[in-house]
């Protein structure tokens, strides 16, 4: 069994009278591709925002690689190796793919490189950027402006930007949102390949059940701030409570 990479202990969060996390406790294993699902308002976004440091919990603990990071700000969590992407792709449209990846590479290496003038002459940076672009299948487009990319390739670029921070745990928020079938197939295969490399543990927040059940090794189901299902895709599909409140006859 893989060791716990992240541990969540008795996590609580409420906004006024609306409880979005109620005594949540679970762990994420190193190398296990996990999806978090649930209906709108289930608490998925709140949970990811808490784990990534965007908002604080009301109570509870978050341990990453055995270290308490509950009160760490976002930048410190990123340096520790916990990163996320967002539902809407965040890329610099006026910069090339190479330059988009180079920014976090330089920041991570804490180099004093003059970005626009000499970044491409820095062999260490260039090799790191090219490796990431190759991993996401966009190396041949390294000098293309990000604004010229298709929606699917923009999402791949965002994954590449996150990979530049060398995460150990990466949350992907709706990675296939708005994609056509070809783009969706491509990014899912890319996630599978990256996960198989074993360097990054992926956690997916996704509404598309075809994506969830074809991609995941483990599925966590949230409903009104509670975990109502947790297991393999087949276990979750057959869970009576999950079927009642979320899946219905969709997987029948």
Automatic annotation (TrEMBL):
Keywords: ATP-binding, Nucleotide-binding, Transport. Coiled coil: none annotated. SMART domains: AAA (SM00382). Gene3D superfamilies: P-loop containing nucleotide triphosphate hydrolases. Residues 6-249 form the ABC transporter domain. Pfam families: ABC_tran (PF00005), BCA_ABC_TP_C (PF12399). GO terms for cellular component: plasma membrane. InterPro entries: AAA+_ATPase, ABC_AA/LPS_Transport, ABC_transporter-like_ATP-bd, ABC_transporter-like_CS, BCA_ABC_TP_C, P-loop_NTPase. GO terms for molecular function: ATP binding; ATP hydrolysis activity. This is Amino acid/amide ABC transporter ATP-binding protein 1, HAAT family. It comes from Desulfomonile tiedjei (strain ATCC 49306 / DSM 6799 / DCB-1).
């Amino acid at each position: 069994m893989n060791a716990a990479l992240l541990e969540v202990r008795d996590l609580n969060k409420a906004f006024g009278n609306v409880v979005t996390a109620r005594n949540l406790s679970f762990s994420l294993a190193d190398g296990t591709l996990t999806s978090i699902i649930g209906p709108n308002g289930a608490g998925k976004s709140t949970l990811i925002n808490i784990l990534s440091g965007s908002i604080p919990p009301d109570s509870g603990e978050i341990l990453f690689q055995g270290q308490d990071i509950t009160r760490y700000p976002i930048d410190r969590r990123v340096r520790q190796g916990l990163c996320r992407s967002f539902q809407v792709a965040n890329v610099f449209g006026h910069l090339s793919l190479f330059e988009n990846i180079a920014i976090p590479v330089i920041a991570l290496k804490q180099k004093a490189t003059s970005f626009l003038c000499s970044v491409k002459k820095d062999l260490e940076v260039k090799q790191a950027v090219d490796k990431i672009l190759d991993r996401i299948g966009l190396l041949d487009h390294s000098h293309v402006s990000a604004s010229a990319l298709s929606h699917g390739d923009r999402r791949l670029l965002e994954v590449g930007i996150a990979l530049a921070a060398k995460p150990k745990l990466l949350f992907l928020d709706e990675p296939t949102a708005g994609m056509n079938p070809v783009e969706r197939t491509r990014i899912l295969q890319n996630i599978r390949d990256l996960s198989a490399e074993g360097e990054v543990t992926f956690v997916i927040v996704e509404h598309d059940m075809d994506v969830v059940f074809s991609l995941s090794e483990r599925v966590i189901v949230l409903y009104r701030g509670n975990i109502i299902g947790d297991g393999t895709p087949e276990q979750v599909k057959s869970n009576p409570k999950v079927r009642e409140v979320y899946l219905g006859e969709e997987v029948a």
